[in-house]
Amino acid sequence: MTTRTGLRLVASLVLVGAVLWFARFQSHTSSLTAEPFCPGGSNPNPNAVWCEDFEEGGSTRRWSVSSAKDTWPVSQFVECADNGFGFKDRCAAWTNRLVFDNEWGFYGYDARTSFPPQSELYIRWYQYVSDPYTWGSLEDKALVLHDRRNAIAAYVGTSRNHLPTIRDSGPGVPFVSNYQDLDWSETKGQYTSVNRFQNQGRTIELQPGRWYLFEWYIKLNNPGASDGITKLWIDDASGPVITQTLRLHYTDMRWLRSSDAGRQFDELRLTVYHQRCDGAPNTCPPNGPRILDQSHRWDRIVISRAPVGPLREAERRTAAP
Question: Does the reported pTM lie above 0.70?
Answer without folding.
Answer: yes
